[in-house]
TrEMBL record:
Keywords of this entry: Acetylation, ATP-binding, Coiled coil, DNA-binding, Helicase, Hydrolase, Isomerase, Metal-binding, Nucleotide-binding, Nucleus, Phosphoprotein, Zinc
GO molecular function: 3'-5' DNA helicase activity; ATP binding; ATP hydrolysis activity; DNA binding; four-way junction helicase activity; metal ion binding
Name of the top EC class for this enzyme: isomerase
Known catalytic reactions: Couples ATP hydrolysis with the unwinding of duplex DNA by translocating in the 3'-5' direction; dATP + H2O = dADP + phosphate + H(+); ATP + H2O = ADP + phosphate + H(+)
Biased composition (Low complexity): 59-69
Protein name listed in UniProt: ATP-dependent DNA helicase
Organism field: Seriola dumerili (Greater amberjack)
Residue span(s) of domain Helicase ATP-binding: 116-291
InterPro entries: DEAD/DEAH_box_helicase_dom, DNA_helicase_ATP-dep_RecQ, Helicase_ATP-bd, Helicase_C-like, P-loop_NTPase, RecQ_Zn-bd, WH-like_DNA-bd_sf
Residue ranges with Polar residues bias: 758-770
Amino acid sequence: MDRSGGNDDVQAELDSVETELELVELQITELLQKQTELTSRKNALLQRLEEACDTAQPSSSSSSASLKSSRADPVMSKQEMQRYDGADFSWSKEVEQQLKDSFHLSKFRPLQLRAINLSLSGKDLFLVMPTGRGKSLCYQLPAVCSKGFTLVVTPLVSLMEDQIMYLKSIDVSAVMLNASSSKEHAKTVMAGMTDPKTPFKLVYVTPEKIAKSKLLMSRLEKGYNANLLSRIAVDEVHCCSQWGHDFRPDYKLLGILKRQFPKVPLLGLTATATSSVLKDCEKILCVSQPITLTSSFNRTNLYYEVRIKDSDASISDVASLINSRYKDQSGIVYVFSQKDAESVSSELQKRDILAYPYHANMDPDDKSRVHRKWTSNKIRVVVATVAFGMGIDKPDVRFVIHHTISKSIENYYQESGRAGRDDQPADCIIYFGFSDIFRISTMVVMENVGQQKLLQMVDYCQNIDRCRRSLMAVHFDEVWDDEGCNQMCDTCRHAKDYTTVDITQHARQVVQILELAGSMDEKLTPLKLVEAWMGKGPAKRRKMIQTTTLSRLQAEAVIVRLLLQGYLREDFSFTPYTTYFYMKLGRKAPLLKSQTHTLSMKMRTTESGSAGDTSAFETNEKEDDIIFEPVVMDNSCPPQPKQKLFKEQRNLSRKRDLKPGSQTNKWTEEQLTDRHGEEEEDKRGSIMKQHVVEVDVEINIVDNIGVNNGQKTPSHPVKPCSKRKSTTPQRVRRKPRANSEVAAIPSQTSDGAPLANTVPSSPSQASGISETAAEELCELRNYYSKQLRRINYISHEYLGQPAEPGVLACIREPLKSLRLPRRVTIAQTARSLWTRVSSRQKLVHR
Ligand SMILES: Nc1ncnc2c1ncn2[C@H]1C[C@H](O)[C@@H](COP(=O)(O)OP(=O)(O)OP(=O)(O)O)O1
């Protein structure tokens, strides 16, 4: 009995059971994930139902903004809360008057009055309100209406300066203390804090000042004891929490304020805090059970759009938008780096746009000059890094264009929120570029949840399943339905132009490339992965993989999708100078081994040709009617007739290949034994075609081994195997199937048996097939013959002398782990190859 053979079988079965177990585990993970998603959707729907019931009650508030205010307040009933929307408090008259006389405003915006009344009645409060909705008024107005002064903690000096400038302009006295304040100024301010006739209503300080100046703390204590410290406002309160997107270490020390001055009401303000961040802030600031007022984040006047960034054309696209849609209007273009700020602004200037850069490294005077000029409409566009951020309060910003995606949805919301503060329509457009993801990724890798937040941002850009606003709302614990969007995002506006495409085969190809790279100890950056998949890169690798027929943008879109869904993952490598980002197989990658596992994504269809040819994707629609774009493109993109032509040609050639009795079919019927379901698969396009060729390979190898005289002539002349352009042009391309090349291939099997001479030298010699197929076969034949040579070489290296005769014995151990496409191991392929060689020999000799 052959015990070693028996053990092998057991081992093989064990391998297969283990693989299946792994798949089952992944499926369980996937189902659990789905369960979590569904549960959260269920909760959201329940909440909506609850809200609908609330609105139906006659006593409910008409404020559109109080989505969560009653829910978030554990200590106050709904009715009680509604009382704070009223004007029957002792201070109400003065509040009304100051609103008009000091602030020159006619009425409150949603939640402002409630916040002001709560604060004036001494309650601790967290106010979460979208950027530009008027949070500042909620502490400025109470400050004006109260005795003493309000201490305002602000993270940036520029923010303080803006506020003080504004307050001065409306005759409200305010001062600031920061690291650059002179001694005399600091002395005057501190003296004012204990003066019963306080000469100012607001004192702005940085958190660093609180943390470092004992003198300030002692003065505050004196002011507190004299009942002059009327209120503490902590602006951008999310900076307390390291889960927030703008963590500032000095904010962590602000708990001292409430500990030292427990009777003073504290008001925390932010535009971007999730409930978990607020919980964290609550602890850090030592406030117990503050009332949280959350205004809806839905900025109904903002139109959200995502465009694919084609790095060559993006600047021209931005420029033409600014020169046409936003002619003579004011806006911001956000960029990734200082260098980008310089280069993009100079490119825009070249295109007659009055654009200036703004970034952290600029001289402070230059920065305020740009800011001032822009505010007074002397500059139309500021091309800025995120340094142009908090405190930018220009009402008539008609567009905020992100030339590079933001590092998180929270950041994006805040940056884009600088548009349309006057409640008039404004646009927020992102240019979503594949390589930008990884530029930012290397930047946020050290941040606590930086990577996770970046991927959420990427998902926002790529996801066209859902309304952009509702995707954003999730991040602020809100639920908006698509109807609430009112077609104010590109997804809702173009809903009919999207279709679902099957990307399973594409995903498998990507996974195979990474598996191959892994087996060769190679790491692939995202860019290299795309290039490898598109057939660029080293010829060696090109021969070993299935390249894609997708356009570059489509290929990138698929890779991003795989990354977002966990089929791929990131891997970093650090050098003293830089961080490298590589693509690795994700935890879901093994799922793709299962033939029943499918993967799809939504893509946009267009009437005329644009970014991509669709035929590589599977859809439910008639293929000839649609052309796909990976995400969202400008509607105004002109059609590209070349691609349409290419598509037509390919369809034509496909039809020709499929014609009954055509050369291809003849070859197939005569030669192929494994054509199960081929007809259907052929319809799927070129990918399936490659699969068919894959099956042919086993015969091709036989041909390779046996060829030396090429007795039969092909019915089609066989072209050289140069379907794709070489990336190494200096190398002379090899001639197809020349006898010299064949001579390098062993003319006998490893056990010394001569191979049949009568086997045709190439498939095209055996029967007539299309030129394309012949080329593909030729390429694959080269690839496999190379593999065979490698096998030979490795087996000799590894075993020295083959322990038992036959190719299979030589390669089993060293190549056990290598896998070929479609779950076929090299050992299996070799075994089947061996069977075929033997049966072919028998046939020939019969
Ligand atoms: N009730 C109101 N009616 C009209 N305009 C108002 C009202 N309240 C505030 N504003 C204006 C004043 C400002 O120009 C603008 C933004 O106010 P501001 O307090 O700076 O917003 P904010 O603090 O919520 O934004 P950010 O988060 O960016 O700091 O809105």
